[in-house]
Amino acid sequence: MATVPVKKRRKKESMSEVHKAALAKGREEGRIVRRYLKGLEAAKPRRGRKRTPDSIRRRVATIDSTMAGADPLARLHLIEEKQRLEDELNTTATTVDLPALEKNFIKVARLYGERKGVSYSAWRKVGVSAAVLQKAKIARTRR
């Protein structure tokens, strides 16, 4: 019977401070890029007629007065509409400081894009304007 040699375990080496700092920097850059892209998404114009907080409140009041006399199925739909309107009202109350997000994005976008292999056209397809990419010194590339 042959014996199987036992593999020696490698001593687990801890990361150097330089490596830890590089990882932390990469995480922070990722957060900045994510916040900016989410801000762009939130600020993107939507199709259709714009609703104001006052018009949403009026519709909620109308739903409340209509609900008492509604049949069960109609009440179900009114409750759902009211929940959506209240959610919309809550999200419109929170504003996005896009200029501040953009300023931070401009600082890190080029390095982040180079490290992650993000092309100019990919930035454009997710909604980053050409002016912002120019400020971030991201060159136009073919792709």
Write the layout of secondary structure elements.
Elements: H1 17-43, H2 53-67, H3 72-93, H4 98-116, H5 120-125, H6 130-135
Summarize the structure.
By secondary structure, this protein is an all-alpha fold. The chain has one domain. It is built from 6 helices and no strands.
Mean pLDDT: 88
Q: Regions with pLDDT < 50 over 5+ consecutive residues?
A: none
Fraction of residues in helix: 55-70%
Tally the beta strands. 0
Integer count of domains: 1
Account of the protein in words:
With 143 residues, this protein is mainly alpha-helical. The chain has one domain. The protein is 66% helix and 0% strand. The chain contains six helices and no strands. The chain has helices at residues 17-43, 53-67, 72-93, 98-116, 120-125, 130-135. α1 (17-43) crosses α4. The longest helix has 27 residues, at 17-43. It is flat and about 85 Å long. It starts with 16 loop residues before the first helix and ends in an 8-residue tail after the last helix.
